[in-house]
Design goal:
The chain has 21 helices and no strands. Helix 5 packs antiparallel against helix 7. The radius of gyration is 28 Å and the shape is globular. The N terminus and C terminus are likely disordered. By secondary structure, the protein is an all-alpha fold. The termini are far apart. About 80% of the residues lie in helices and about 0% in strands.
Length: about 475
């Protein structure tokens, strides 16, 4: 498959130029969705995400129907979350060596085949978690490549709004995927797996047809090992002061915002509202996040949006401190939705993150952040759950949020100044230019070597053709001199 720029989409109208150069004017949804490639990536991401959730529900249903064990079913469900904590960083580092479009296509086609095999009747039950785990291992390189590709497709404030749209999409596909998975699995879980496989196939078709092929991002060095590439992803994120500050805000916010969702079942039991209350608490978070995505991502101009990072970061834990008062379900829902709204801090933070991140580390850095989010969220839920068994859920959430206020206060004090960000952005641009020049130099040297080799081969061939002729001519002249 060719990966030359401009090869895909030939003959189709070009995307409109970016008209968001004015730093004080926010981009519009029309401007973002006017970009053909973004529409394709948006649709492919939705299909792949829905497929992931369908697969989780179907796997859990198949195991439960076969064993009748809630523990076995839950373990099968949890298998699909393991990749981010196991081999995902290495896979993401490997994927960054190749064009992002090719990685996304390969992941989708492989997942389609794997899940289709899992859907075959008669496949041993013990093999199903293995197949779904292998399929889930391909989600990190797909998601990281998509995240790294987005700045190539959208620029300026269109990229920030694109992030907001993607965040809303993630919330919607989670709800829709689980709901569809439950409905289809009620008929036949293997049918849900077939639908899952089809979503990956359709995603690949969208990417192949509408996303332009681009070469892999140039790197300053190409002789590094895979493990070193993986380690460099962590080094760039946590060893660069500006990127580290942004990462801490995002990871800390997620650790303090996840409790209502992670402890929803226990909290609703404590409130006496049962499964109904659990559902409302869990739904409040994505609702608040969706509202925040629209308000912060679309309605707030770029300049003020950047200034909202610290206030929004502080609002994440502050909004849940009132849980210490053991509020009723409606108040819990409002507090949880407010926390989801505050987590829209990710939108401007990601906008800064991508400006300070060298191009050659995009996929690895996004992979590091995704893995970090899984780790801090899971750790926070386990730790808070252990505390809640002794002091109650509401009090645990409130105390955890007080700790969050202290953490976010420290983060705010250490937040880099505007000039520090500007300096980091300038250094990143210089590094990107150096990498591009190094890649161009390697390309010229390779082309020169190829040309020299071709010329040498042509000369050798010419000499082989000329040699016998000259020999015959010399033989003829000698013969003529004989009497």
């Amino acid at each position: 498959m060719s990966e030359e720029p401009g090869q895909a989409g030939a003959g189709r109208p070009a995307d409109p130029p970016d008209t968001t150069d004015d730093p004080d004017r926010p981009a519009t949804y029309r401007e973002v969705f006017a970009v053909r490639e973004f529409r394709a990536v948006f649709g492919a991401s939705a299909l792949s995400s829905i497929g992931d959730y369908l697969g989780r529900v179907a796997l859990a249903a198949l195991i439960y129907h076969a064993t009748g064990s809630a523990l076995a079913s839950a373990a099968g469900f949890a298998v699909t979350y393991l990749p981010w904590l196991t081999g995902a960083p290495v896979l993401v580092a490997l994927a960054e060596r190749y064009p992002y479009r090719r990685v996304m296509l390969g992941c989708d086609l492989a997942r389609m085949a794997i899940v289709a095999v899992a859907a075959i009747p008669g496949v041993p039950l013990l093999l199903l978690p293995v197949l779904m785990y292998v399929s889930a291992m391909l989600t990190p390189p797909f998601d990281s490549s998509r995240s790294a590709m987005l700045p190539q497709i959208l620029s300026g404030d269109r990229y920030v709004l694109g992030l907001s749209i993607t965040g809303v999409l993630n919330q919607a596909t989670q709800v829709g995927g689980y709901a569809a998975g439950g409905l289809i699995s009620a008929v036949d879980p293997r049918l849900a797996l077939l639908v899952d496989a089809a979503t990956f196939g359709l995603s690949a078709l969208l990417i192949r047809t509408w996303v332009r092929a681009r070469p892999a991002e140039p790197r300053l060095r190409t002789d590094t090992s895979l493990l070193r590439d993986t380690a460099e992803g962590f080094t760039v994120v946590f060893g660069t002061p500006v990127l580290r500050s942004i990462a801490v805000v995002i990871l800390a916010g997620a650790a303090f915002a996840i409790l209502p969702e992670g402890l929803a079942a226990s909290w609703s039991g404590e409130l006496g509202t049962g499964a109904r209350g659990q559902g409302w608490i869990m739904a409040a978070m994505p609702i608040g996040a969706a509202i925040g995505g629209v308000v912060i991502g679309r309605l707030v101009p770029p300049g003020p949006r950047r200034k909202l990072i610290r206030p929004l970061a502080a609002l994440v834990p502050l909004s849940l401190v009132a849980a210490l008062l053991s509020p009723p379900l409606p108040v819990v829902m409002v507090l949880t939705a407010l926390t989801g709204f505050a987590m829209s801090v990710i939108i401007p933070a990601n906008g800064l993150f991508v400006q300070a991140l060298p191009n050659g580390y995009r996929a690895r850095a996004f992979g590091v952040m995704q893995g970090g989010l899984q780790l801090v969220q899971g750790g926070a839920i386990v730790l808070a759950g252990a505390v809640a068994d002794h002091v109650g859920v509401a009090r645990t959430v409130g105390l955890w949020s007080l700790l969050g206020l202290l953490v976010m206060g420290l983060v705010s004090m250490l937040w880099p100044k505007s000039g520090t960000f500007d300096k980091a952005f300038a250094e990143t641009r210089a590094r990107n230019e150096a990498a591009a020049e190094a890649a161009e130099r390697r390309s010229r040297e390779s082309a020169d070597a190829d040309d020299a080799g071709a010329a040498s081969a042509a000369q050798d061939a010419s000499e082989r053709r000329v040699g016998p002729v000259q020999s015959r001519r010399r033989t003829g002249r000698v013969g003529a001199e004989r009497p």
